[in-house]
């Protein structure tokens, strides 16, 4: 059995009878259902709060300005920090002309936001009709953002460290201490990050911190407060790293 075979397949009730539907989750829903897959494509978006999505061996933090398109059959999971208003759109490939075969990040326009909110009114699940679906997919098609996400290490020991840092990116524990806790050589753990992600441990942790900063900035927190919360000792260092990663300053992102 391969790792992909071990991922559970979810069969949505009555899904074969409709081309597309949305689901608005309860604000108290924490998510983190475990890695799973289904035959339908999925659009993941939060109207309030943020989501951390894992798909295709990569991780993204999604504030309300961004959504993630997950192609059907792709193993994925979504974790939330309640209260977070999660909205998901499910579409059968037969009704979706989008060509993407890997997870794709999207900028959520004002129109797309209003469409997804209207579809999720009343909570729970609801079908999406042909004309509305066509309009949603039209908005989605032109909204691609250049963000390949954060590669997750395949090595089990490095993956354990990565999971802890995703949960608390401000953790300053040195690599040597992580290695001691895991009873593995520091050089072995260092190689596992580089080999599995293409980034050094320090670079990977920096990217995890910058991802976590996105929803905090959108909430209007001061840049200095965000920098400290995600583990940066100086606003200047945070701003430099943020511009290098996202091509704009933290202040410009917030506005």
UniProtKB/TrEMBL annotation:
PROSITE patterns: HTH_ARAC_FAMILY_2. GO terms for molecular function: DNA-binding transcription factor activity; sequence-specific DNA binding. Residues 159-255 form the HTH araC/xylS-type domain. InterPro entries: AraC-bd, Homeodomain-like_sf, HTH_AraC, RmlC-like_jellyroll, RmlC_Cupin_sf. It comes from the Bacteria. The keyword Nucleotidyltransferase does not apply. The keyword DNA-binding applies. Transmembrane segments: none annotated. Keywords: DNA-binding, Transcription, Transcription regulation. SUPFAM superfamilies: Homeodomain-like, RmlC-like cupins. PANTHER family: HTH-TYPE TRANSCRIPTIONAL REGULATOR NIMR. This is AraC-type DNA-binding protein. It comes from Klenkia soli. The lineage of its organism: Bacteria, Bacillati, Actinomycetota, Actinomycetes, Geodermatophilales.
